[in-house]
Amino acid sequence: KQAIEFINIIQSSIPTIQAMLLSKTQGDVTQSLRFIANAVKFNTCSNLSNKCLRASFSLIFHPDETIRNECMSTFMGVYLPNDTQDGSSMSPMEIATNLVTICNQCDKNMSEMTSLEKIVSDLYIKNELDDNVIKCMWELTTITTTATPTQLTIAGYAYTVLSMIAKQSPGILTPTRISHLITTGLGSTSMILMRGALLCLQTAPAYINTPPNAIQTASTTGKAKSNPLADYESPTELQAHYTSAFATLQDIIIGAIFDEMTDSSSMEVATWSWFSLCELAVHVLFHIHPQPDIAVGKMISHMYEGVVNTTNSTLNTNTNGSVTCIL
Predict the structure, then answer these.
(1) Which residue, 210, 182, 209, is CA-closest to 196?
(2) Torsion-angle region of residue 43: left (phi > 0), alpha (psi -120 to 50) or beta?
(3) Distant-in-sequence, close-in-space partners of 130: CB < 8 Å, separation ≥ 6
(4) Roughly what angle, to the nearest 10 degrees, separates helices 110-125 and 92-106?
(5) 218 φ, ψ (degrees, to nearest 5)
(6) Secondary structure string (H, E, C) spanning the chain
(7) For the CA atoms of the chain, what is the radius of gyration?
(8) What number of CA atoms fall less than 13 Å from residue 300's CA on the CB side?
(9) Most buried in the list 36, 42, 173, 290, measured by CB within 10 Å?
(10) How do the pLDDT tens digits run along the chain, 327 residues long?
(11) Cα separations (Å) of 215 from 74, 204, 206, 240, 291?
């Protein structure tokens, strides 16, 4: 009975604690963060406390350095603890899995996702995420033809986390990994996996038209960036990797994936999902294509022909989808 009463007291206090995160008093904010972290660790009112914790991620942008540091410490204490319950350190795969899980939880909230990206980026800069964690993250993106929807989702969010890190260090996108994400990510019918791969590819080195001496090899933060161009025997090798993605990018932009998307969702849901992917695909195309303006012009021409004469169009047999895409 006393345990239940204690849980009820904690539950009733969480809204007040969350409000204190907005306090102008430094002590209120830091103590609130510590309270929330303990509530999550002890699995007390898990839904409310986890939601409150995610809401605190935005404090990473707070003007007060003490609060920013406390926000980072809270995140690390919950998701990257130095000591687990059995006294051992958390393995790189456990850390990678935790980051993928929290990315999934933040996915529907743009503010939380933006804040998470900043936190992950800062963790990498501070060397809290080492090469072993990066390696495990890539392992999570490895899928087979018999992969379950859950495995595809995990792979998709793993790509999303990798894209956050790649913005700080494009060197993690080695030639082999670029080929891997194009094959497994863009070759999938999973929207989450495809989106994650596009986010990752958007941060890939755009060196097709960039001379070697123009490549910056070190960041302003002091953390070294590798030079992916050095891994290629010639610029045409990089071109070949990117060229293999052009057909899939075109299919996304012209809406050829509409049929697959509407099999399990309404036209409205499919339209919003496609729009998000299309926007990313256009960004990626302009990032890695040598003549993106010409390529997009040809796509629009084909899309228009598909709307005017759907009988002779092989790009999209869904008339409503065609009209939606070209608009």
Answers:
(1) 182
(2) left
(3) 92
(4) 150
(5) -140, 140
(6) CHHHHHHHHHHHHHHHHHHHCCCCCHHHHHHHHHHHHHHHHCCCCHHHHHHHHHHHHHHHHCCCHHHHHHHHHHHHHHHCCCCCCCCCCCCHHHHHHHHHHHHHHHCCCHHHHHHHHHHHHHHHHCCCCCHHHHHHHHHHCCCCCCCCHHHHHHHHHHHHHHHHHHCCCHHHCCHHHHHHHHHHHCCCCCHHHHHHHHHHHHCCCCCCCCCHHHCCCECCCCCECCCHHHHCCCHHHHHHHHHHHHHHHHHHHHCCCHHHHHCCCCHHHHHHHHHHHHHHHHHHHHHHCCCHHHHHHHHHHHHHHHHHCCCCCCCCCCHHHHHHHHC
(7) 23
(8) 8
(9) 36
(10) 777 777 777 777 778 888 898 899 999 999 999 988 888 877 766 667 788 889 999 999 999 999 999 999 999 988 888 766 555 678 999 999 999 999 999 998 999 999 999 999 999 999 999 899 999 999 999 988 888 999 999 999 999 999 999 988 888 888 888 889 888 888 887 889 999 999 999 888 764 444 444 444 433 344 444 444 444 445 566 677 788 888 888 888 877 665 555 455 566 666 777 788 888 988 898 888 888 888 877 877 766 666 666 544 444 444 455 555 555
(11) 37, 13, 10, 20, 20
Residue 218 β-bridge partners: 224
Q: What's the residue count for the chain?
A: 327
Full-model pTM: 0.80
Q: Which residues pair with 224 in a beta bridge?
A: 218
Spatial CB neighbours of 295, under 8 Å, sequence gap ≥ 6: 246, 250, 285, 289
